[in-house]
Amino acid sequence: MENTENNDLARKQTQTQTPAPQRIAFLGLGSMGLPMARRLLDAGHPLTVWNRTAAKADALVADGAARAATPADAVRDADVVVTMLADPAAALAVADEILPALRPGTHWIDTSTVGPDTVRALAARLPEGVTLIDAPVMGSVDRAAAGELLILAGGDTVPVAAVLDRLGAVTPCGGPGTGAALKLVLINAVIGGVALVAEALTLADGLGLPRELALRTLSQGPLAGAVGRATATGSYFPVALAAKDVALATGAAKLPVLEAVHAALTVDPALLSEDLSAVAR
Q: Is 56 labeled as catalytic in the residue annotation?
C-alpha cells in the first residue's frame, strides 16, 4: 500500500514539473536583436548567440550566453532558432548556413522584416520536421527591452509560445508569410506618415508658422503616431532600413506615393545611417 502511494505521489510530481526552458539560438544582435536576446537569456533559456560582428555578443556572453563561431554552430543543438537580420539578402545568406544543421523538431522564428516572398523561399527549403514562423515585430528598441513588441505571426506559434510571450504580444495573422505581409503594411504606413509630417513641417515653415505649433497641433490629430516617430528619441530605425522596407512594398504593388518616399529617403547617401526622425528634422 505504501509503495502504491509513493508511486502515485511521484507520478503527480512528475506531471506538475515545469518543462525545461527551450534551448535557443539567436542570430542577429543589432539594435533590436540585442535586447530581444537579452530578455530570453534573463528568462532562463539556455542561449547561444551569433552575430557577424562578434563583439556585439560580449555582454550576453559575460552573463552566461554561449558564443558560436558560425550560424551553423549556433543552431546545431537548439530547440528554437530566432533570427533578426537586416534584409532578405542577409536572411537568405544565413539560411544557406543553418539549414543543413537544423534538426527535426526545431522551430525557426524569423523576426526580420524581409517580406512574404523571402519567407516563402525560406519555407520551401526547410528540412523535414523543421517549422518556420514568420514573426516580424513592430516597436522601438525600448519596447524590445521591455518585452512590449507587437509580434505579427504567420504560422503555428503554439510550440514557441513561451519564447514569443517573453518578447511581446502576438497577433496571429494566418499561414506562413502573412506576418511578413502585414509587417510591410504597418511599417510602410509609419514611414509614409513620417514623410508626410516632414512635408507638413516644411509647409508650415514656408507659411511662417512656428515648428512647435505645427508639431503640437499635428500630434492632436490622426497623424499623432507619425509625429511621435518623427520626433522620437532613444530609438534607432536607420533610414537605410526604412528605405529597404519601402522597396519591399513598392516591389509588391503599384504605390506611387511610397515610390516618391523611397526617392526622398535615398537621395542623400549621408542620410542613410541616420535615424528616420532625421527626415523630419
A: no
